[in-house]
Amino acid sequence: MNIPFNKPYMTGKELWNIAQAHANGHLAGDGNFSKRCSRWLEARTGTNKALLTHSCTAALEMAAILADIQPGDEVIMPSYTFVSTANAFALRGAVPVFVDIRPDTLNIDEKLIESAITERTRAIAPVHYAGVGCEMDSIMAIANKHKLLVIEDAAQAVMATYKGRPLGALGHMGTLSFHETKNIISGEGGALLVNAPQYAERAEIIREKGTNRSQFFRGQVDKYTWVDIGSSYLPGEIIAAFLAAQIEEADSITRQRLAIWNTYHQWLAEAEKAGKLRRPVVPAHCGHNAHMYYILLPDLAQRTAFIDKLRKVGINTVFHYIPLHSAPSGQRYGRAHGELPVTTEMAERLVRLPLWVGLEEVQAEVIQHILASL
Question: Could you please report the per-residue DSSP string of 9-20?
Fold first, then answer.
């Protein structure tokens, strides 16, 4: 067997769209395909403005600028996340403050956020792990009480919901990823969801290298010039053309991934009852998108042995993040709020199983090898 951990899915329309972008004579950013994707995101999420970016990292960096993060400011986030969540704020001179996660969903523990707030706190950056929503009602209540911004890292959460509301569209800003390991892909790529209208105009400017170019093209100014800080955060039209084909099939892709996720969940129920592993927990009020299927094994040694056994039969499984609070740069640029015991434990126990559209054809065999390796 040779079962990869991830296999990028193509709908069949991507290359045609790319050819059309070339035929239209527009390969730089913000062509027709970019506009189509932005309109789709706005319609699906209800956000005030959706701006495509070249990565979710870029969207997070834009959000940090829009939030006016200054040196010495603090931003509360989980330690169990990708480095981009912290880097976006550290680049502005801010201090990432790492808070422990919940043992059920592995999302930031909302009960610990308020005690981490200081006079330097400016924002909260919840991360929707595995496409399962954080407790956003509680987080927004805390933010409103302390006059803080909420910037959702919804990199894994395209097509997922919290109490029926799209993730990424609940905070003041949200960020999405279309990296090839995500559900809806463009190779690299992302988007900034500007949910609070007061940030929309400046978001366009920052994304366009600090110029009012978009206003010029809309006829709002007679020429465009440098008016703010910014960078080249927009993707090329080829990326948007690829993404446009994906979003047309977003519902179908999500259904197929959910079917694979549910098959894992059903087949591994007995192993969980036997105490060999723990399956993912999805609260009833969260509509997840089957971004990943992970299991929690009893300890690090058993996880290491499990990954090695499956590798030998050609099935690629992976562990996930090294907690940021334990990383060299996490200790240099950030600080931990407390000991973070849940983060440390879960990071040593978690292993991600293969999940990609098309896996269903061999999934039963994969699961048999998984069960044999426990």
Answer: ---S-HHHHHHH
- Kindly report, residue by residue over 242-262, the tens digit of the pLDDT: 999 999 999 999 999 999 999
Segment 217-226 shows an average pLDDT of 88
Task: Of 124, 140, 132, give the one whose Cα is nearest residue 285.
Answer: 132
Count of residues in the chain: 374
pLDDT at 140: 98
- Percent above pLDDT 90 for the chain: 96
Distance of alpha carbon 157 from alpha carbon 56, whole angstroms: 12
Question: Average pLDDT in the 121-129 region?
Answer: 98
CA 183 to chain centre: 10
59-73, 207-221, 294-308, range with the lowest pLDDT: 207-221
**Alpha carbon distance 36, 89 (integer Å):** 30
Which H or E run contains 140? Answer: helix 136-146
Q: How would CATH label the architecture of 250-373?
A: Alpha-Beta Complex (3.90)
Report the alpha-carbon distance of residue 98 to residue 335 in Å, rounded.
6
Helix axes 32-45, 237-248, angle to 10 degrees: 40
pLDDT tens digits, 296-314: 999 999 999 999 999 999 9
- In this prediction the pTM is 0.97
- What are the helix (H) ranges across 187-340? 200-207, 213-217, 237-248, 250-267, 269-273, 300-312, 328-333
According to DSSP, the β-strands at 173-177 and 95-99 are unpaired
φ/ψ of 359, rounded to 5, equals -65, -25
- One CATH from 3.40.640.10, 3.30.200.40, 3.30.470.30, 3.40.50.150 for 14-248: 3.40.640.10
> Are the CB atoms for 45 and 166 separated by under 8 Å?
yes
Residues 77-88: tens digit of each pLDDT: 999 999 999 999
Sign of the torsion formed by the C-alpha atoms of 205, 196, 337 and 146: positive
Name the nearest CA neighbour of 178 among 362, 37, 329, 299: 37
